[in-house]
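Handout, page 2. Input:
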Amino acid sequence: MKVKIFKIRLPEEFLYKDQGMLDSFLEAHEIIKVETAFVSEERYWSVILYFEDIKLIKNTVKEPKPVKYSAENDFLNADEEKILDALKLWRSEKAREQNLPTYFIASNKELVSVAKYKPAKREELLEIKGFGKHKIENYGEEILEILESI
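Output:
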């Protein structure tokens, strides 16, 4: 197991570049464990990743990945707006509990996609872009409970 540390600085001139470097790394490695800490005096997130390199198998044909659902526009009907508001409130509370930025829990686009798609089972959450095994294990049941309650 290897370890890599990222610094995600909050000022906008650094945030997108730092986040992009983290995203690229996450796509290229098998993440085993993640630890985060906020360094308040310098205003940045420290992200520690424990990982394995993804082994590339050459000259093999892979099955195409299924296309995942992603909301195409931001127009929501009244019911979808209620769902989105409830999901955003839940996300804020969860981020506060876990001392994480809200986008670590779920992005706005992911929450809009959930509000429009309205999954009823964990398997259906997998069909939404941005929802993988880790996110569903950590938050899937709570998201489905919110959808059921509205």
